[in-house]
UniProtKB/TrEMBL annotation:
Its main location: membrane. Residues 21-153 form the Thioredoxin domain. The chain crosses the membrane at residues 600-619, 670-688, 694-712, 764-785. The lineage of its organism: Eukaryota, Metazoa, Spiralia, Gnathifera, Rotifera. InterPro entries: AA_transpt_TM, ERV/ALR_sulphydryl_oxid_sf, ERV/ALR_sulphydryl_oxidase, QSOX_FAD-bd_dom, QSOX_FAD-bd_sf, Sulfhydryl_oxidase, Thioredoxin-like_sf, Thioredoxin_CS. This is Sulfhydryl oxidase. GO terms for biological process: protein folding. It is an enzyme of class 1 (oxidoreductase). Residues 1-21 form the signal peptide. It is found in: Membrane. It comes from Adineta ricciae (Rotifer). GO terms for molecular function: flavin-dependent sulfhydryl oxidase activity; protein disulfide isomerase activity. Its EC number is 1.8.3.2. Gene3D superfamilies: ERV/ALR sulfhydryl oxidase domain (1.20.120.310), Glutaredoxin (3.40.30.10), QSOX sulfhydryl oxidase domain (1.20.120.1960).
Amino acid sequence: MTLVFTHRYLLICFLIRLISSAVVPSQDSVSLYTANDKVVILTGQNFSSTVYQSKTAWLVEFYASWCGHCQSYANTYREVAIDTWGWRTVVRVGAINCYADENSPICDQHNVAAYPTLRLIGPNSFTNGSKLIHLTATDAKGVERELIKELDALKRTDRNWPNFAPIDHVELENVYSYAPPTVKLVLLIVEKQDDFTGRQIMLDFSKYHEQLSIFRASTDSKLWSQLQLNFTDIPAVFIIHSNGTTERMNTKQNINENLGSRNLLNYAIRSYVHKSKCIDNFDDRDLEEIIHSKNALKKSEVKGTNEVQGAAVENKNLNMVDLETALSYMLRREVPRIKMIYGETYDALLHWLIVLTKYFPGRQPVVTYLKDLLSKVKQQPNGLSGKQFRELADINTSNSYLPNNQIRYIHCTGSAPQYRGYPCALWLLFHTLTVSQVQTESRNTHVTEVPSAIKGFIKHFFGCRHCSDNFMKETSELHQLDANDKNAAVVYLWKVHNHVNERLHGDETEDPQNPKIQFPSSNLCPKCRMGETNFDSASTLDFLLQHYSKDNFDLSSVENPSEPSNKKDQLPSRIDQYSMIEINHDFKQKSGLFSHLTSIVQRFSFYFLIFIVIIVLYVRRRHCKNVMDGVVKFNRRVTRYIKRAMSGSTHFFTDEDEIHRRSSTAGASYNLINSIVGSGVIGMSYAFRQSGYVAGFVLLGIVAVLTANAATLRRNYRKTNQNLIYVLFYDLDYSTTILIRSGHLAKVNTYQELVYTVLGKSGFLWLSLVQFLYPFICLISYNIIIGNEIEIFFISLRFLY
């Protein structure tokens, strides 16, 4: 019965979602790419079935269609997809629009915090096992090189996977034997160690891996000397015959000033294969398709730059739907992208929410919603996760409500879905807040309050990182605003926006039907203009205060909050079975004692620290009654040693008993073992992370064997040498051995006396100071590190339990 009810409930939710999407057309479903771009368009429907458990690797771009830099980067990514079209038996190229509702769970799953983000997902991968690719903003070749590095690092042994590693230690006559038995042609590419040409050629011909094997050798290999090449000859291609002989492939005849090394070798190999007919079913269709796509891309770029722009659509009245839609996307999608919100990021969020609650000129339910959200965030002073914030932002009640249906804009609608939209609505919100501050506060206006909150939000939460960096540069003079001019923030933000419009005018991100102009236009405000480029300050300010005022917003299209829902987001629509399994892996909240303890520690961390200190002091007082006496005696002893050093005494100790109390074989051995074990324990986790569990345990076993052999050497040495000190340190540390031998030669038994004997009084004092400063500074750094990390540690515990 329960199962039937669940199925009916899911069906009803799906139908509601389907009906609502039919009523309000989505403005976020656009893709920046088409099938002609050689980029596979990925969505929430096909991502799992297409990418996960694929036999090939996948290079995936996670982008947002509203992101200006993503739009600028699209042609670069198209070029990457075209250049790597011949590699598709090894790696495919795809893209997913994170702005679309159905795609956002996949983007969250891969921890996409900025747009655009490139990730490589290896063959036969499950869920979100992806690696970040460092992209070069305008250089497709740079992305391809980074892609090759990551493919090389995967170290795959599949038959269709190229052997990227150079065969530097192989004799020339043995190269052919490394090829599979089905191979009909073996090629050797000789190049510099860090060159990418050989690996590019391997990928270009990877579809023929059963008949063609390509190896590469560097200039440091044995093959380099055997082939007797000069640096001017490389990269060079050699045909390796089955009898061990070699034949250099002629590439000179294909020389063209416009061809790079990759194209030169590619054409040479194709010419040889066509001439020798050594590979079955060999064709140039991929190459022809690549050339055709590149020509089409060039034509589209020329067409885009010559596109005729229309006149800007200017509306005197603004719409509240744009502000509420921007708020919803910002709070429910942008901010939750940040995995952990704490420290400076938490302060920026708090500042932004305070400004919104004070100056947002919206309906009362929306303002109440913002106040409730601010109150809940304040209850997490040590920070919270993006997932927690999303849960808070999704709560709607009868008198506290922010619409969360489809992403739609009215005033900020573009001629195509990728134009205007969210960035336009953000600018609208920013201007509105500055004007609202002026009109709300009659006196004592803090002019940088709103602009600094805007800057903090853009810096920490705006998805387009390139745009964020540019905004930081544009607002670098924010601190210079006149504190006595309450309108300073309004004018400042207007100037910044116009400067951005001037910089982006004619850019590919510009809506051709709504070009970026100097605002306001002469049609919208005739009195504001003084010629083509100059503005009348007083008239412009009056216009801005009226244009972005609360009274100029149309409320007729906003969603009615009469039927709110305190549920969280509807079930993700059109997500396949794999995605549902992957997305719904959130940690369950456990109600045990540990969960309560971690919650208490997080909320009262300062008092918890005081409690721990009291417990430690009590234990030391209860079980270490002579601790204070020991401290006093230690201070007296240190004072006595310093006085003796200053007076030039040759010995620090007055009798042999004190010498033996301060230094012993057992004590020295303990200190040495403590330092070795301490550093080993600290470094062991890092070693395991770098090598993996299998290699880590193997290496640990090797170290154990070496240690056991060292103990055997000590036992053997003890039979011939009666000096126990030499026996202990014979094979452990040569520097320690030198110190011990030096002590015997100087006839002193302590490190301090040895230093004084060798370096004198001044050297002793200098080294003592250094030895004091070193642990003192280390302790300070440890306290700083612990202070920064302990909060995150306790917060993480709470998330896990």
